[in-house]
Each structure stands twice: as structure tokens, then as C-alpha cells.
Amino acid sequence: MKLHIMNLWREILQNFRGILAELSDQNAYQRYLVAHGQAASPEAWREFQDHHWQAKSRRGRCC
Amino acid sequence: MTGRILWALIAVAAAASLGVVAQSHGEPVNSTWLVVAAVCTYLIGYRFYAGFIAAKVMALDNRATPAERLRDGHDYEPTNKWIVFGHHFAAIAGPGPLVGPTLAAQFGYLPGFLWIVIGCVLGGAIQDFVVLFCSIRRDGKSLGQMAREEIGKVGGFIALITVLLIMVILLAVIGLVVVNTLKGSPWGTFTIAATMPIAIFMGLYLRYWRPGKVLEASLIGFVFLMGAIFGGQAVNNSPSLSAWFTYSGPALAFALILYGFFASALPVWLLLAPRDYLSTFVKLGVVLLLGLGVVLLRPQLEMPPLTRFIDGTGPIFAGKIFPFCFITIACGAVSGFHALISSGTTPKLLARERHAHGVGYGSMLLESFVAVMALIAASSLQPGVYFAVNSPAGIVGATPAAAVATIGNWGFPVTTEQMSSLATSVGEQSLFNRTGGAPSLALGMARLFARTGGGQALMAFWYHFAIMFEVLFILTTLDAGTRVGRFMLQDLLGHVSPKLGQTNWMPGMLGTSAIVVAAWGYFLYNGVIDPLGGINTLWPLFGIANQLLAAVALCVGTTILIKMHGARYMWITCVPLAWLVLVCFTAGWQKIFSPLPAIGFLAQADAVAAAKQTATSATVIFNARLDAAVTGVFLILVALILIDSIRVWIGILGGSRPSTTTETPFVATQLVEEA
User: Fold this and answer.
1) Does residue B199 register a pLDDT over 50?
2) Are A19 and B214 an interchain contact pair (Cβ–Cβ within 8 Å)?
3) CB contact, 8 Å: A5 with chain B?
4) Does residue B324 contact residue B311 with C-beta atoms inside 8 Å?
5) Looking at the complex, does the CB of residue A34 fall below 8 Å from at least one CB of chain B?
6) CB–CB of B91 and A62 under 8 A?
7) pLDDT tens-digit profile of B590-632?
8) Nearest CA to B82 among B382, B286, B366, B497?
9) Contact check, Cβ <8 Å, B212/A45
10) Residue B673: predicted pLDDT
């Protein structure tokens, strides 16, 4: 029972961290690096940021 | 067996709680009943109604989703369902579910509560779920693309124009909420002004000093934000400094218009991106805090279940419960804008089709719950205070004495001393006539937060924390919306001249930014100088527009369901569609043609024309007629889509039109199921 609860908490924490990573574009950045065969660097981040936000800023916003 | 007993208990709890909420007369009701009734109804809707649609109608299966088939490492990426849920919820949650229910509380808490819960379970969540499903089966296509392919080119074009027009009204109305919140408030104005250099600092930090460290930059930004709230207190306490940050409504409107232009024209990484990160985290944190506050503290609802204003004579906005309660609640129950997120963005992340159930339907339930929290926070205020804050001077009188006398005559006692003491406790000079919903919601939230920590000593801090949260949230929608509007306009103008469609051509970019800002700025300015406070005019216009967009989304959903199953399941989307059409067209008709000047735009113009002319009479007359024309255009556009859709439905059901679907062929998933 105790193990089950600990696993549950671990899972919740992982999902929470995952949501934070998704909302902060950390996951998107990692995907970008993998897709372009690049290593993390200031230049790679700036390229990613321009590319990512060019698309993101075109999407409708909710009210 | 255990499961059945559990669901029976949930159903009994929902029915019993709804009974208590509906049957209470005279005595204050504890908000716990609303929370239990809402949560149990959501659970039943999710498990049985949405479960039925997922299994029988959509037949969600193990096919590969667009995220898997078209995986590109950018937009298309199979993602954990909880992460997609968080992402989707953060994208759909805007200021609407906070402001709408607060305004609708003028009818009492009951009508708004029932519509938020029932409208969401049977309408709003269904719309989000069905559109998400349709988009998943069509490679993540947008609502406009689906309208064009499933209904016709006319429908697709009208959908694009409708979205652009709605965007203009949306930006004007949320801008008005900001102006009404900050006018005459040096503390609030300083705090919000400080968010701009904070966002620019974060932008530079992320771009040059610590590239990619978004969480780190957001944390630093949040610490600065807290500092800005305390700085605002110092500004408020200093007579010389407070003069620098005390502005009238028109001055703030111009500042906002200028801000919107620069936010649209500046590089996205400098202002828009960092503000978006900060706003998202603050939004999720505050929503969580508000939910915890309501659940743990269980405040009493001071507002009666129904007020005398159900007869249509409300001071915050005029009009009877039907149709104006539904128009005012808007996003808390049904939001057409969600269809833009459910199509295009989220479908490209879903790893499994069946995750659409939780993400599409479940996220809207959570948004509806946020609306219930906002309604509770507003209804926990003493009604006299609520009406004193939210009523415009044109209705209750320009002086505190006149306002308390008018509100007292309505049966909601409040005193000038009480309002003065409340204003002092939150660091404001006055809380009278602060229309727009944000200040009263901030008061309700501050009372809740103050009870969890700090007590009355921190009331002013929590009030301005809530104001900062609401305004930051709204400005994020405002600057992003202006930019989106600019891109949409450039797309349209690109058909006239390809050069105008180029988003990197500076003159085109500046010109279209200026047009979009001027369009919403015009409505904003006229809302600010409106003697009835502006919200009375603009919020119903926005509500009608938003619900009409939902009607467009439901037209697309119905067309696809008919192509899949014939007439068998079309009621799922047709019932909410019929209701929205009835509500929107009734509201639209009344806003144009009602003989009562408080409701009908044309009657208002005639009344002003007949009265003694002042310097602003001509402007008020012109604006009332313009608002009537805008409402008419919305109704005509959506009527055209509806007629076009019905023509397609009759053709398919009668056999004269092939029921060809644009659904992507089945391909089995290769993804391994997550634990």
C-alpha cells in the first residue's frame, strides 16, 4: 500500500514536471534539437525560439 | 457492482446538492453545495455522456494519430496525455470564465451556476471534444480548413471573417476591463506598468544571457512581479509618486492602444514570448490557489439565488435572463474560441485517439469549474458591495451618496463608510463604479486568500495580486490577439496584393498592425467614454460573437457526424447548436431592435438624438448605430454558414449529395502503450 502511494506520488510529480517542461517549451526545444541533429547552444535556442514562436504567435488565443 | 454503487452515490450527491442550491430561499448557502453539485455533474457527464460519444459515435480506436503519422519534431509529436491536458487547458483558459460569471452574478448565483454546469456538460465540452476528434481524423486541420472542406468555400471564408471580427470585439472588451480596473488606481497601474520592463528583461535574459532557461527566467520574473506589487504600495503611499501613476480612462485606453501596437510590431521574443510564459505559470498557480481557497474555506454565498434583476433592469448590463445570462457567461459554459485550439494545435500532440476524451471534454470541464470558482468568489461578496463596485455611474449616480442610496433602494444595503473602509483596506481611493468584473472578482479572491494567510493585514496585497493576475492574463491575450489579428488580416490582404501578405515586409507589418489596433482601439475608446460604462454595450456584443463562433464549430461538427452516421447522432451537436442559435439570434435581435434604450442600440441612438444635445451626443449616436450594424453583420454571417450547412445536411440525408468524408484512412498505431 505504502509503495503504491509512493509510486502514485512519483507519477504525479513526473507529470507535473512534464507539464512545466511542455509549457516552458523545454520539451519542444529538445524535440527541435533531435530533429535537426543539433546540440544545445545559445544559437540553437535562438533559432528554435524564432521558428517556434513564428508558428505559435499565429494561433488563435482563447478568451 | 462496487462501481455501480459508487456512480449511484455520485448521482444522488449531484441531485441532492442541486436540490439544496435550487431550493434555498432567504438563507445564505454554503459554496460547498455548488462545488459538490458541479463536480458530481461533471463526473457523470464525463463518464456516461462523453463516454457514450467516445465509444459509440466517434468509435475512438487504436489508429495512429497525426502526432504519430506526421511526427516531425516540431508541431507533430506524440505526447503524454497529462502533459497535453495541461497544455490544452493552459491554452483554452482565458479571462472570459473569470469575468463572465462575475458579471452574470447580477441575476443571483443560481442562473449562472446552472448554465455554467449544464451548458458545459451538454454544449461547451461537447463542442471542444467533437472538434478535437474531427481534427484528429483530418491530420490536425484547423476549423477554417474543415469548414471549407466539409461545408464549402463560402463557409470557410465566412468562418475566417467571423473570427477576425470577433477578435476585434474581444480585444476591445478585455481592454475595457483593464482600463476600468486601473483608472484612478496608482498601485494597480504601477504594478502593471512594471510587468513590461520585467517581460523585456526576461526576453533579453532568455535570448542572450541564459538562452533556453525558461523556468529560471519565469521564476526571476515572478519574484520581480511580487516586488512590483510591493513597489505599487510604496507608490500609492507617496503623494508625489502616486500622481505619476493616476490616470483617467481615456488616457489608459490610449496607453493600451499604443502598447498593443508595439506588442504586435516588436520581435516576438522580446515581449510576447516572455510575457506568455510568465502569464501561463501565474494563471495556473492562481487558478489552483482559487480552487483550493474555495474548497478549503467553503465561503457562504451572500448573493441571493435570484435577484430582482432577472426582469431585465440590471445595472451591470440590461436584459432578461433569457438570453443575456447565457451570452454573458460565455466561455465558462461554451466558447467558440476553444474550437481554434481543439483544431490545429492539440490534435498534433495526442498520442492516442482515446486521449481526446480526457483532453477535449475534460479540459472544458476544468474551465467550467474555474468559472464556478469565479462565480463563488463574486457571490461571496455582500450584494450591496458587489453592485456598488460593478454598477456604472450613469445608472447609480456619480457620487458615493447617490450610489448607496440607489443600491439601497434596490434592496441591497451598503454605506459610504463601508465602501470607503473597504477601499482603504485594499489600498484604493474608491471602489465605486469599477465596472468590468475584474475589481469585484479581485475583492472576492482577496477575501479568500486573506483568510488563508495574513488576514486583513494582507488584504491590500492580495487584492493587488489578484488585479495583477487578471490584468497580466488579459494583456497576454490582448498582445497575442493583436498579433494573430494582424496575421489574419495579412492573409486576407495577401489575396489582393502578395506583398501585403508577407509577414516580414516592414511597411505591411506596421500597416496591418495599425489597422488591427485601430479597429479594437476604436471600440475600446468608445466603451471608455460610454456614460453607461461600456461593459453594458461591449460584453454582450462579445458574448454574442463568441457564441456564434461556437455555432460555426457545431455546424462543422454536425456535418461530419451526419457524414459518419446519417441522422442517427446529429442531435449530439444539433441540440447545443439549436440552443446557441436561439440564444444568439434572440440576443442579437434585442440588441439591435429592442425599443428599450438600455438594451437596443437603435433605440439608444434615438433616445440620445431626442434628448438635449451635448458635446458627445453625435459620437454616442454614431457608435450605437455602429454597434447595431456590427451585431447585424455577425448574425448575417452566421446565418449564411447555418443555411449553407443545412443545405449540405439535407443533400446528404436526401441522397442528392455524396457523403464523402475527408477523414484520413485508418493506419494502426505502432506506439507502445504508456504505463
Assistant:
1) yes
2) no
3) no
4) no
5) yes
6) yes
7) 999 999 999 999 999 999 999 888 877 888 898 899 999 999 9
8) B366
9) yes
10) 67
Residues of B in contact with A28 (CB under 8 A): 74, 77
Tens-place pLDDT, residues B407-417: 999 999 999 99
The answer for residues whose C-beta is within 8 angstroms of residue B410's C-beta and 6 or more apart is B308, B387
Distance from CA of B96 to the nearest CA of A (A): 5
Residue of B579, B614, B620, B581 lying closest to B602 (CA atoms): B620
Q: By CB neighbour count within 10 A (0-12 exposed, 13-18 middle, 19+ buried), where does B621 fall?
A: middle
Helices marked H in B298-415 — which ranges?
Answer: 321-329, 338-342, 355-356, 363-379, 383-390, 393-396, 400-409
Report chain A residues whose CB lies below 8 A from the CB of B101: none
Q: Residue B353 is placed in which grid cell?
A: 485517439
d(CA B560, CA B574): 12
A47 → chain B, closest CA residue: B207
Torsion sign (Cα): B84, B268, B139, B122: positive
Q: Is the model's pLDDT at B8 over the cut of 90?
A: yes
Task: With beta carbons less than 8 A apart as the criterion, state whether A7 and B71 touch.
Answer: no
Q: Within 10 A of B196 (CB to CB), how many other CB atoms are there?
A: 15
Question: Does the predicted model carry a pTM greater than 0.90?
Answer: yes
**A7 at B interface, C-beta within 8 A:** no
Could you give the count of Cα atoms lying within 13 Å of B486 in the half-sphere of its Cβ?
31
Residue B79: helix, strand or coil by DSSP? strand
Instruction: Indicate yes or no: CB of B214 within 8 angstroms of CB of A34.
Output: no
Cell numbers standing for residue A53? 514562436
Question: Has residue B7 got a pLDDT over 90?
Answer: yes
Which grid coordinates are listed for B228? Answer: 512590483
- pLDDT at A60 (0 to 100): 65
CA B101 to chain centre: 10
Note whether A40 contacts B: Cβ–Cβ < 8 A.
yes
Cα Rg of chain A (Å, integer)? 16
Which pLDDT band holds residue B453 (cuts at 50, 70, 90)?
A: low
Residue type at B497 in one-letter notation: S
**Mean pLDDT, rounded, for B268-280:** 89
With beta carbons less than 8 A apart as the criterion, state whether B406 and B397 touch.
yes
According to DSSP, the β-strands at B300-301 and B29-30 are antiparallel
Q: Is the pLDDT of residue B234 over 70?
A: yes
3-state SS string over B484-512?
A: HHHHHHHHHHHCCCHHHHCCCCHHHHHHH
* A26–chain B nearest CA distance, Å: 7
Check: CB of residue B155 under 8 Å from CB of residue B555: yes
Render pLDDT for B419-434 as a digit per residue (tens, 0 to 9).
999 999 999 999 999 9
pLDDT in tens, B380-391: 999 999 999 999
A38 at interface of B, judged by CB pairs closer than 8 A: no
Alpha helices in B380-458 (DSSP H): 383-390, 393-396, 400-409, 416-425, 438-452
Tell me what pLDDT residue A61 has: 66
Q: How far does A18 lie from chain B, in Å, by closest CA?
A: 6
Whole-number pLDDT of residue B675? 47
What is the spatial distance between Cα B373 and Cα B112, in angstroms, rounded to a whole number? 12
Query: Would the CB atoms of A26 and B344 count as touching at under 8 Å?
Result: no
Helix (H, G, I), strand (E, B) or coil at B275: helix
> Which chain B residues are within 8 Å of A25, Cβ to Cβ?
214, 277
State the pLDDT at residue B77.
Answer: 84
Give the DSSP letter string of B36-55: HHHHHHHHHIIIIIIHHIII
Q: What is the pLDDT of residue B250?
A: 95
